[in-house]
Amino acid sequence: MTSNEFFVVEVFAAAELRGNPVMIVMDDGSLETEQMQRFAAWNGMPETVYLRRGMGGVSQSNAYAARIFSPRTELVFAGHPSLGAAHVAVEAGLVERPVFNPGPEMFGGGDLATLWQRGAVGMVELKLRSISAGNAAVFVKTPAPSAVHPLGAEHAKAVAAALSLTQKIQAYQVSAGANWIVVRRDDPADLERLVPQMSVIEALSAELGVSGVTVYVPADPATGTRFEVRSFGPLIGVPEDAVCGGGTACMAALEHHLDGGQSAGQPSYTDSVCFVQESEQRRSLHSTPGTRFSPACSARITGVFNTL
Known about the structure:
With 308 residues, the protein is an alpha+beta fold.
């Protein structure tokens, strides 16, 4: 039996067992795709990442390859798994110890190092702000948004029914590395009223070729954040994601589109992104223009095992 070391990592973790978990497996080349998918389905994590040392096209010292799986399928891109993978790549020695240099204030000050991850979406750039025993501040640059398209009336009605919303809604199909249906609501109470019909969301997702449905609302200004978000991805095996990087990237693209992007029905392009923070049981977002870097507040390894 093949033995592959794997790590359990918490991302967006302000405290132990409060973050979004991800499984990171060290791939020595012995695993077939079917084995990767089977383990991803078995282990109970929202995503599983398989890491390999080095790759072509950039310096080998700060680069690695990654494949990301949900319990049901391989993903082109996912945010929080990429953050957890970068943390393990450094801590496990998959890349050389990063070289830190002064970085811009947008990353919170201090010195930064750069990593590169190759995946199905292509090259993904990551920044590390600091490294200490078991913890790191990591930022991932989300893929550039490519298109925002409003759904037709019948599909929008079906999305509303799938969320148990009785009001008429406008829903959008958004591509930003990942592909999601995104809905903005103006009443914060709508987020708590959602009763997702997972089988309906799954069928709609399959029909439209998306990972799931993300809904966001303006947050209470007193919280210091701009939006609260919920993401449902039963098609990929994640009924509700605690903090969904792919859905968040698509939400940022839509917000830009609605806030002065190109006319409805036309592709919208933006470098805006929402910074994600986990706060109690609520998903909260900060929006910062001019960048696509999205940070993990912290990430920590919670266990190391040898199996597979």
